[in-house]
Sequence to fold (197 residues):
Amino acid sequence: MPQRMERAIIIGAGITGMAISAQLSQAKIHHVVVGTPPPNQAPKLGESMEMLSSVLLDEMFPNAMAEQLNAKGHDVRAVVASPEFAGCPDEEILIGAVEAGRALVTANIKDFMPIDARYRAASRVHAGLIMVSAKTFPQNRTYVTTVTSALDALLGAADSIQPGGVIFLTRAGLTKPAPCPNSALLSEVVASLVGQR
Fold:
């Protein structure tokens, strides 16, 4: 009798669907993603799907920081250089980051932690939040340089930014991100599919 090949079907090609696809690909599980990916986020034929590592710098960071990180090969935009974000409240900036598939880098921890909590309570997933603490990065004359170096290290690490995750940036830049709110479900799905092989 011929062996039957089972395949997983992922409904939705947004951030969560692509995160599940990436996990299944790593586990070498055949799967199909059904849905339309966000604009400019679709992998091309033969290209693998990797976790997102594009970021948006919140309004307290200068565009020069984005330019320096882009020169090092990263995909970074700054709110201050994006007219569509001029005068937008924090929630709208995060929505714009989500729509663009970008994690948001911010030093505005007191406002974005409650926004993250609301996202989790509503089972919504953002592309990741990278928090820059004033305790770790005092706002002195070396602030921009040290934050840029830490972001360069973080963005250079594989799978450093997880959808729905919150990371507190360290001076080394490398830190274990908090799991996405759907990580337990994702692990359960992958484990059940691996067990069926």
